[in-house]
Amino acid sequence: MLQAVPDGSVDLLFEKKGNQLRSFIGGTVLQAKEWPLEADGRYFGVRFLPGQCFLPEGLSAKELVNADIEISGNAYGDNLAEQIMEAHNLEEQARFFLESYEKRLDGERKEQGWSRLERYVRARIYASGGNVPMDTLVEETGYSACYIRRSFERVHGVAPKTFEKFIRFQNVLHQINYKADKSYEEIALECGYYDQAHMIHEFRRFAGVTPKVYREITAKTPPAMLE
């Protein structure tokens, strides 16, 4: 069983069953989501951090939000499906994928105005912990709010405001995981929420459980598994 929570990433999953290989791609989830893995399947996955994925031709980031779409196993390289099938272990699968993806990447490196803007907005959202107002982005970039949203959605499929919520949520997860002595009120204020109730409301929506229940679960979880 795989589980994901909102973070803006794109996931690619190869499923090998017998002599058949299927490939799926999915964008960020909007709330906690589980994927059941079949016992007779072998799986190889790739996670692209926000803004780092070149999508297969014909797909948009918006189509992938909260969705899983089956794609060709060769969407990221000629003969990639065959290489993934014949690989002896995960290390070989990773090497074959990276070699194919890097070739594709070389042909996609075209800097454009909207992509520079998206990268700037994403960096500002990270630097502010998910708390940079749109008015500030308009003032700093000289672009309209509408153009900023459109450029950002082109890459992520969600608006900057939604992405900011993801980042605040991820910061709360980090605080709970590694700052056991902090109260929920302290965490809420540090992460940019109006108050503790606001944080708990969004946390439950994104994680499917309250911060208290999550903290109880992680208290029994090895640190390496929280990364």
What would a concise description of this structure say?
It contains 10 helices and 6 strands. The protein has helices spanning 61-64, 80-86, 90-108, 113-127, 134-141, 145-156, 160-178, 184-190, 196-207, 211-218, and strands at residues 2-4, 10-17, 20-26, 33-35, 42-48, 68-71. Helix 2 (80-86) packs antiparallel against helix 3, helix 4 (113-127) packs parallel to helix 7 and helix 7 crosses helix 9.
What does this structure look like?
The protein has 227 residues and is of the alpha+beta class. 49% of the residues lie in helices and 14% in strands. The protein has helices spanning 61-64, 80-86, 90-108, 113-127, 134-141, 145-156, 160-178, 184-190, 196-207, 211-218, and strands at 2-4, 10-17, 20-26, 33-35, 42-48, 68-71. Helix 2 packs antiparallel against helix 3, helix 4 (113-127) packs parallel to helix 7 (160-178) and helix 7 (160-178) packs across helix 9. The relative contact order is 0.12. The model has no long low-confidence stretch (mean pLDDT 91).
